[in-house]
């Protein structure tokens, strides 16, 4: 023991002098079977210890790094804002601040927390915080394309007038244009009615050139007529002399007035025996269209489009009015114009019918319209011939669009394709920002409603402590979740999902405007799944099958494989080339979704002549002696007792007898006795009606206006 003590004292003295002899001494005194282990222990004692390093590294446990949720905090945060940043509720913040000097009962969602307690609440919740960065959003530069400023009057040159022919359906607008350009357009339109906007350049025998726009007269194409009026210089209002001023005639007058365009009245069909042009002009007075013979400034020309009578006078009146208007345009510079119609051609791709309003359109020009752009590859006239250029007032078909623009868009020329892409991207960005703003406003409104409901719910709990308040809210929410309906419920009510396909943008627009007027949602809900331009595709059929919908196509085709696919999946495929037939079938399909109505069909009537009692066992039963006046009485059907104008009783008969025999039916002119269950009070003079209830088909109340 003394020896051991002396050894330890010597070791302590050696530590203060030099550590290496002590290491040697310890290594010699230990019994180690492996020299390698001895060397390793020597290195541990000889190495420099790093600050914070544990001496016993064998027992050190490896900690698994846990990713904590980051909470973005800032100065002067409210309790509600902190809870929202942590994605927790208000009571969670209160729980996190337990056992702190904070007065929890005084806290409200709008209470402002100190920086210390904000960090404390985040840390106690097992999260980490970071300060919010104050960064200003950088505004995107406006790269849109704008029209050029007005040209110098000295650079303006005379241009042909753009004349739009408008009026009611079947009043002879297209036939009038046929006679002017010596062609047969009517034969190419389904049903003999115009369903597209047609643009044609007509050269008169006198040498003047006029660009005519033929608009549809059907009620469904109101937007097309409005677009034609906005692109025109003169409106020729066609009214049939054998008819009167109709709805679309009045609408055309209103379009012309809104566009501030002068009018010429063409009284058509004057060759018919029942024609009365004077009556038509007098009816126009009621709509403030005063012809020259009544002291006004509107020219009225009597024509016959079918026979070609007096068409030269109409053309001269148009040219004279154009000279008075002094129509001029700038033929040089960047091109500007208006898209009248757009469609997808199987061989050409996206094609637009456009009117040049400024500049000269040539092949290779880069155009921007809406959210689409084009590098012009070809220009076609109304006869399908390739033209090299198109000046002001010329109507051409433009090929080369990357995407199909909408009818009514203004197209502008830019210097390069890169500039066109920038303009289209900016317009898409601006539209997305506008949509985002609208959605944020809607979300803010929903949040405000939710907050108001939340505050209203907590108004009665303000006197409680936060623990009592939490317990009360828990009990209330538990009841609500118990009666909460399942989210996976079948859709109640009747609905008709639709897919609309059309040949041109204007046709689809007309059908969509019709669907916007649908006002029978309480009967059957009308859902628009998809609309587009072009033939029926496989995607359309698959979408219609998914939503149990129908496909309506206007002036489009469906290949045989598509038709077979639709038949195999049970998808209704309804293709039409006349607008009102499409609407009629749509109304019929809507009506087929409605449940049938019970209709009471009267089978016969009888008059009560006398009353008497009949003994049945020990019981006396009142019996009415009647005479059948109309039809017949059938015991198996329902009966109604009418006294004066009041219905006294409805039900079935207990017995029906003719003389003493029980019968099923009694015909007109025969006497009978009948009794009813429940002791009905029959009186002489009462009328007994025999009726049966039949199912009658219900018709939708939607009226599109034609």
Automatic annotation (TrEMBL):
<dbReference type="InterPro" id="IPR023115">
    <property type="entry name" value="TIF_IF2_dom3"/>
</dbReference>
<dbReference type="InterPro" id="IPR044145">
    <property type="entry name" value="IF2_II"/>
</dbReference>
<protein>
    <recommendedName>
        <fullName>Translation initiation factor IF-2, mitochondrial</fullName>
    </recommendedName>
</protein>
<dbReference type="GO" id="GO:0005739">
    <property type="term" value="C:mitochondrion"/>
</dbReference>
<dbReference type="InterPro" id="IPR053905">
    <property type="entry name" value="EF-G-like_DII"/>
</dbReference>
<keyword id="KW-0547">Nucleotide-binding</keyword>
<keyword id="KW-0496">Mitochondrion</keyword>
<dbReference type="InterPro" id="IPR036925">
    <property type="entry name" value="TIF_IF2_dom3_sf"/>
</dbReference>
<dbReference type="Pfam" id="PF00009">
    <property type="entry name" value="GTP_EFTU"/>
</dbReference>
<feature type="domain" description="Tr-type G">
    <location>
        <begin position="158"/>
        <end position="328"/>
    </location>
</feature>
<dbReference type="InterPro" id="IPR005225">
    <property type="entry name" value="Small_GTP-bd"/>
</dbReference>
<keyword id="KW-0342">GTP-binding</keyword>
<comment type="function">
    <text>One of the essential components for the initiation of protein synthesis. Protects formylmethionyl-tRNA from spontaneous hydrolysis and promotes its binding to the 30S ribosomal subunits. Also involved in the hydrolysis of GTP during the formation of the 70S ribosomal complex.</text>
</comment>
<dbReference type="Pfam" id="PF22042">
    <property type="entry name" value="EF-G_D2"/>
</dbReference>
<dbReference type="InterPro" id="IPR027417">
    <property type="entry name" value="P-loop_NTPase"/>
</dbReference>
<keyword id="KW-0809">Transit peptide</keyword>
<dbReference type="InterPro" id="IPR000795">
    <property type="entry name" value="T_Tr_GTP-bd_dom"/>
</dbReference>
<dbReference type="GO" id="GO:0003924">
    <property type="term" value="F:GTPase activity"/>
</dbReference>
<dbReference type="GO" id="GO:0005525">
    <property type="term" value="F:GTP binding"/>
</dbReference>
<keyword id="KW-0396">Initiation factor</keyword>
<dbReference type="GO" id="GO:0003743">
    <property type="term" value="F:translation initiation factor activity"/>
</dbReference>
<dbReference type="Pfam" id="PF11987">
    <property type="entry name" value="IF-2"/>
</dbReference>
<dbReference type="InterPro" id="IPR009000">
    <property type="entry name" value="Transl_B-barrel_sf"/>
</dbReference>
<dbReference type="InterPro" id="IPR015760">
    <property type="entry name" value="TIF_IF2"/>
</dbReference>
<dbReference type="InterPro" id="IPR000178">
    <property type="entry name" value="TF_IF2_bacterial-like"/>
</dbReference>
<comment type="similarity">
    <text>Belongs to the TRAFAC class translation factor GTPase superfamily. Classic translation factor GTPase family. IF-2 subfamily.</text>
</comment>
<keyword id="KW-0648">Protein biosynthesis</keyword>
């Amino acid at each position: 023991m003394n020896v051991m003590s002396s050894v330890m004292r010597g070791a302590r003295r050696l530590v203060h002098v030099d550590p290496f002899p002590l290491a040697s001494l310890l290594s010699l005194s230990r019994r180690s079977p492996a020299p390698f282990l001895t060397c390793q222990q020597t290195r541990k004692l000889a190495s420099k210890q790093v600050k914070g390093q544990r001496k016993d590294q064998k027992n050190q446990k490896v900690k698994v790094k846990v990713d904590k949720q980051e909470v973005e905090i800032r100065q002067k945060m409210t309790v509600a804002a902190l809870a929202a940043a942590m994605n927790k509720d208000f009571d969670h913040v209160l729980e996190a601040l337990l056992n702190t000097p904070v007065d929890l009962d005084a806290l409200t969602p709008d209470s402002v927390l100190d920086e210390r307690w904000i960090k404390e609440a985040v840390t106690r919740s097992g999260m980490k915080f970071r300060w919010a960065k104050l960064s200003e959003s950088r505004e995107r530069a406006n790269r849109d394309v704008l029209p050029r400023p007005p040209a110098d009057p000295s650079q303006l040159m005379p241009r042909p007038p753009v004349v739009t022919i408008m009026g009611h359906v079947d009043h002879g607008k297209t036939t009038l244009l046929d006679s002017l350009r010596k062609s047969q357009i009517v034969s190419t339109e389904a049903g003999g009615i115009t369903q597209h906007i047609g643009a044609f350049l007509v050269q008169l025998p006198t040498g003047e050139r006029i660009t005519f726009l033929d608009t549809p007269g059907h009620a469904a194409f109101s937007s097309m007529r409005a677009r034609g009026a906005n692109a025109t210089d003169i409106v020729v209002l066609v009214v049939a002399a054998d008819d009167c001023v109709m709805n679309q005639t009045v609408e055309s007058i209103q379009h012309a007035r809104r566009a501030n365009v002068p009018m010429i009245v063409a009284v058509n069909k004057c060759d018919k025996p029942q024609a009365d042009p004077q009556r038509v002009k007098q009816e126009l007075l009621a709509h403030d269209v005063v012809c020259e013979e009544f002291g006004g400034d509107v020219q009225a020309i009597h024509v016959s489009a079918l026979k070609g009578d007096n068409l030269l006078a109409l053309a001269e009146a148009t040219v004279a009015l154009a000279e008075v208007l002094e129509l001029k345009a700038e033929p040089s510079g960047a091109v500007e114009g208006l898209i009248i119609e757009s469609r997808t051609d199987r061989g050409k791709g996206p094609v637009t019918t456009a009117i040049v309003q400024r500049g000269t359109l040539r092949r290779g020009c880069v155009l921007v319209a809406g959210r689409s752009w084009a590098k012009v590859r070809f220009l076609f006239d109304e006869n399908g011939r390739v033209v090299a250029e198109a000046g002001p007032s010329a109507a051409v078909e433009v090929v080369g669009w990357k995407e199909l623009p909408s009818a009514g868009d203004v197209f502008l020329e830019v210097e390069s394709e890169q500039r066109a892409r920038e303009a289209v991207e900016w317009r898409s960005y601006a539209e997305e920002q506008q949509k985002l703003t609208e959605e944020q406003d809607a979300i803010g409104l929903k949040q405000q409603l939710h907050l108001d409901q939340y505050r209203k719910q907590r108004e009665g709990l303000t006197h409680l402590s936060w623990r009592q308040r939490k317990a009360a809210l828990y009990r209330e929410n538990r009841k609500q979740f118990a009666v909460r309906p399942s989210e996976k419920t079948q859709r109640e009510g009747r609905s008709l999902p639709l897919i609309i396909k059309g040949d041109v943008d204007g046709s689809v627009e007309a059908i969509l405007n019709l669907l916007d007027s649908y006002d029978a949602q309480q009967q059957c809900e009308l859902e628009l799944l998809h609309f587009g331009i072009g033939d029926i595709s496989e995607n359309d059929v698959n979408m219609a099958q998914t939503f149990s919908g129908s496909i309506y196509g206007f002036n489009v085709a469906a290949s045989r494989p598509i038709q077979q696919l639709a038949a195999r999946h049970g998808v209704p495929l309804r293709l039409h080339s006349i607008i009102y037939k499409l609407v009629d079938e749509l109304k019929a399909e809507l009506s087929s979704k409605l449940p049938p109505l019970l209709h009471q069909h009267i089978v016969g009537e009888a008059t009560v002549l006398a009353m008497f009692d009949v003994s049945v066992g020990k019981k006396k039963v009142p019996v009415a002696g009647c005479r059948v006046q109309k039809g017949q009485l059938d015991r198996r059907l329902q009966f109604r007792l009418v006294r004066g104008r009041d219905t006294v009783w409805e039900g079935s008969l207990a017995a029906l007898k003719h003389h003493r025999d029980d019968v099923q039916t009694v015909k007109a002119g025969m006497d009978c006795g009948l009794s009813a269950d429940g002791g009905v009070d029959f009186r002489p003079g009462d009328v007994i009606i025999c009726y049966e209830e039949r199912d009658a088909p219900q018709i939708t109340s939607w009226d599109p206006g034609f």
